[in-house]
Structure formats: structure tokens, C-alpha cells
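TICKET: design request
STATUS: open
ATTACHED STRUCTURE:
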């Protein structure tokens, strides 16, 4: 054998380095001698002994594959031999340590006679697992989205059946939808592993009647189903307390306590005091039906509502199936938010004579904003659905703006910077939770979706009053 030239030695070293960095193992199949030359890397990946081994007509390669994939390996290699074309495929093999490993094999006929095949293998188990996890997550997301849409549809139908006017329906439905959104925001922050009871209480009670509400209990985390049920129940109770119960007066109080139960579940008690004299309702609305029938079932337990003269008392008992272990990721307690009923009490916003820019990538929501702001008296500029559209509208006279924080994956920051430099006030509308979503560095109100359009109009009106 001729002595290798320095340049050739360097090329081989470079090839070895490249194979090592890429995590590839190489092999050569000499069909005339019926032997397989296996590199150390190939041996580790494919489960073969290193060095020169008997090929046994290729069976040595086929046998390393999982029994369900052996025919695939045989077919692909035979096609490579027969057609003199490269092959590139993936198969499973049994891992001696347990489980399965995924192997990618690429090979090509290296000589005109078809007597020599060279190829490489790569362990692609991690990539395969990631793909499977991604597929599972997408299927789970699809399932959750459909469940949410079905729940929203049912909520709208049940609310409409029990309201006598469009305005009443919109206010009631918007509040219930916001409650669902709040629970889902907490669940998303915890990667849908669970939501804390105290966080659900903070989301529903933290922004109403300061000093008149209190909640206390051990750290408990609920399943997504139970969290949504409890969030809606707390919303119904809070809304009723504001309209007719303890929170309709300054002296009224609401106290929420929960305790663990021996069976692994929990019991939550809502107690009102100091409010008007209570009488049992003469008709049953959706809120009563939800509390007495839906909530108990969704919590795998039961509920009981008592209309005591001194104040409403509600007991919710949840079974152990409603409780989960503490998630690895636990969000901060949510910021307090006022209910939609309180915002509506201030009356409709008057935007007469103002020119308001709308930047929103969701067409239906943009149209709803346009209608709502126009009905409040504003002249709408836009809507702009893309960043470039919004930037092109900035040369017009603008009094205020409503900006979606994210426009099809692009930040609305460039628009906000121009408006801020011109002294034009704006409000951010975002579907992100408390953890982020709205661009930082701007002194601007943030309204989180889902929202009532009248809420946006009121925020814009407040901005204009401050700027006047």
C-alpha cells in the first residue's frame, strides 16, 4: 500500500472530526467478502460489535432493527443495491438498557459493480421524542381549544336564555367570559398543570370592594376542569354580592375559606355578612343553576347554597380528583381586576370628535372595536392589521390609539415609539397574561383579552381627558 500523503492524512482527520461532531457512525459493507466494517461510533449507535464482522448477506444489519422494522431495513437496502441509488431512512432498535432507540441510516453503492456499500448512521432518538411530544401537545391543544369553544358556546346559550335584553346579555356574558379567561391564564402560566385556589380568589375578588373581601386557606392546586368551574362559581357569587348582596354596601363583608378534607379533596365556604336582608330568589337564573348543579359536578363533589337573612352562605365540596400536586411552575398571584359590571356603572364613553387609530391583527375583533368606538362617537383610523399598514397611517392626525401588542408574531413597538414621540396616548390590547406580552418602556394602560369593547372605549376616553 502506498504511503499516504500529508494532505490525505489531514483530509481523513478532518472527516473523522466532522463525523464525531455530527454524531455519525460510519460503516462499509464488502459484499464480495460478505463482511461489514463497523466503526466504534457505528457500534455504539447501531448495537453492533466494532471492527470487521460477518455480514451474513446483510442479516447482521437487519437483526439489529426492531422486529417490526426489519422488513423496512431489508427493503430499503435492497432498493439501494438494485437501483444503485442512495437510501436514507429511520428505524427502531431495541436498547439493551431498556426501551427503543431511533436510528437514521444513509447509504450509497460505492462501486460500479455494486459490491461495496458505504454509509453512516445517527442516533435520532431525541429528535423523534421531541416530534412525538410536539404531536401530543398539538393534539392536546386542539382538544383544549375545542373544549373551550364548546364551553363558550354553552355559556352564551345559557346566558341568552336567562336574560331579557341585549345589553344585559352582553354585560353578563362578557363577565363570565372574562372569568374563564382569567382561569385559563393561570393554567397557562403553570403549563396547564394546575391553578391555585388562592390565585383564583385573587383574580375574582382582588379588584372589587377593597377591604371588604378576604380569602384564606392552605395551598391547593386544582385540575384545569376544576379551576374553570371554581373560577366561574366565584365570579357568579362576586357579581351577585356586588349587585344585591354584602358588597352592595360599604359595611358588607365577604369571607372565603377552604380546608383540606381527609379524602384528599377540599371544602370551600363563601360567607357574606353586613349586607342587606337576604331572601331566597323568586326565580332561578343561570348563576343559581351553575352553582347548584354544574359546579358540584365539575368539582367531583357537591354544592349547597343557603339564603340566610344575614347573608348568603355557599359550601362547595370537591372530591380528590379535583386536586393536583403542586406544579413545577407556579405563577405569581394575579393582579387585581375590576369586574365588568363596575366599569359599566360609569356609563358609556363619549369619544365625539376624537380620531382613534386601531391596530389589531384579528379581523373580527378589529371590526368589533371599530363598531364600538364609532358608536361612542370616534372617527376610526384603520383598522390596521399588519405592522406596515399601521406605520403607513401614522402621518395622519391621531388623538389616541388602541394597539394590539403582537401583530402576527411581530411587536407593535415601532408604532408605539412613533406615537409616544408625538405625545399621542395609546392603550395596549393583548392576549398575553400577566407575565408579559405588552411592550415594556411605555406608560400606557394594558387591557387583556377577552375584553368588553366598552371597556376599551372607557380607557380611551380616560386617556383623552388626561391629555386635554
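STATUS: resolved
RESOLUTION: sequence designed for all positions
ATTACHED SEQUENCE:
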Amino acid at each position: 500500500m502506498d504511503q499516504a500523503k500529508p494532505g490525505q492524512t489531514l483530509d481523513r482527520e478532518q472527516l473523522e472530526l466532522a463525523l464525531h461532531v455530527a454524531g455519525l457512525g460510519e460503516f462499509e459493507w464488502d459484499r464480495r467478502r460478505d463482511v461489514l466494517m463497523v466503526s466504534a461510533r457505528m457500534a455504539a449507535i447501531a448495537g453492533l460489535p466494532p471492527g470487521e464482522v460477518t455480514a451474513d448477506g446483510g442479516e447482521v444489519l437487519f437483526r439489529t432493527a426492531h422486529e417490526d422494522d426489519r422488513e423496512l431495513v431489508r427493503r430499503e437496502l435492497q432498493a439501494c443495491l438494485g437501483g444503485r441509488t442512495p437510501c436514507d431512512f429511520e428505524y427502531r432498535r431495541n436498547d439493551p438498557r431498556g426501551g427503543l432507540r431511533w436510528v437514521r441510516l444513509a447509504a450509497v453503492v460505492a462501486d460500479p459493480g455494486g459490491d461495496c456499500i458505504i454509509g453512516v448512521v445517527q442516533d435520532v432518538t431525541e429528535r423523534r421524542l421531541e416530534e412525538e411530544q410536539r404531536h401530543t401537545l398539538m393534539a392536546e391543544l386542539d382538544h383544549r381549544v375545542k373544549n373551550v369553544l364548546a364551553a363558550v358556546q354553552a355559556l352564551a346559550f345559557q346566558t341568552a336564555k336567562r336574560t331579557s335584553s341585549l345589553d344585559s346579555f352582553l354585560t353578563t356574558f362578557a363577565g363570565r367570559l372574562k372569568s374563564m379567561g382569567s382561569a385559563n391564564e393561570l393554567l397557562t402560566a403553570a403549563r396547564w398543570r394546575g391553578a391555585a385556589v388562592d390565585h383564583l380568589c385573587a383574580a375574582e375578588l382582588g379588584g372589587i370592594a377593597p377591604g371588604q373581601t378576604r380569602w384564606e386557606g392552605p395551598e391547593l392546586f386544582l385540575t384545569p376542569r376544576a379551576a374553570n368551574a371554581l373560577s366561574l362559581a366565584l365570579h357568579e357569587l362576586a357579581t351577585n354580592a356586588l349587585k344585591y348582596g354584602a358588597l352592595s354596601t360599604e359595611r358588607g363583608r365577604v369571607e372565603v375559606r377552604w380546608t383540606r378534607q381527609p379524602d384528599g379533596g377540599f371544602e370551600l365556604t363563601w360567607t357574606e355578612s353586613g349586607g342587606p336582608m337576604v331572601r331566597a330568589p323568586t326565580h332561578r337564573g343561570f348563576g343559581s343553576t351553575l352553582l347548584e348543579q354544574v359546579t358540584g359536578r365539575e368539582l367531583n363533589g357537591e354544592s349547597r347554597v343557603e339564603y340566610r337573612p344575614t347573608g348568603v352562605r355557599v359550601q362547595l365540596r370537591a372530591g380528590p380528583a379535583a386536586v393536583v400536586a403542586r406544579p413545577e411552575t407556579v405563577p405569581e398571584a394575579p393582579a387585581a381586576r375590576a369586574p365588568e359590571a363596575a366599569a359599566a356603572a360609569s356609563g358609556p364613553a363619549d369619544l365625539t370628535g376624537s380620531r382613534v387609530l386601531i391596530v389589531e391583527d384579528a379581523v373580527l375583533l378589529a371590526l368589533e372595536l371599530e363598531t364600538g368606538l364609532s358608536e361612542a362617537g370616534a372617527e376610526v383610523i384603520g383598522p390596521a392589521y399588519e405592522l406596515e399598514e399601521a406605520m403607513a397611517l401614522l402621518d395622519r392626525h391621531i388623538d389616541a390609539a388602541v394597539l394590539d401588542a403582537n401583530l402576527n408574531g411581530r411587536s407593535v413597538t415601532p408604532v408605539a415609539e412613533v406615537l409616544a414621540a408625538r405625545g399621542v396616548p395609546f392603550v395596549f390590547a393583548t392576549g398575553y397574561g400577566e407575565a408579559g406580552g405588552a411592550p415594556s418602556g411605555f406608560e400606557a394602560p394594558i387591557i387583556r383579552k377577552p375584553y368588553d369593547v366598552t371597556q376599551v372605549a372607557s380607557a380611551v376616553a380616560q386617556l383623552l381627558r388626561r391629555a386635554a
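CLOSING REMARK: Residues 26 and 252 are 78 Å apart (CA to CA). DSSP finds 14 helices and 21 strands in the chain.
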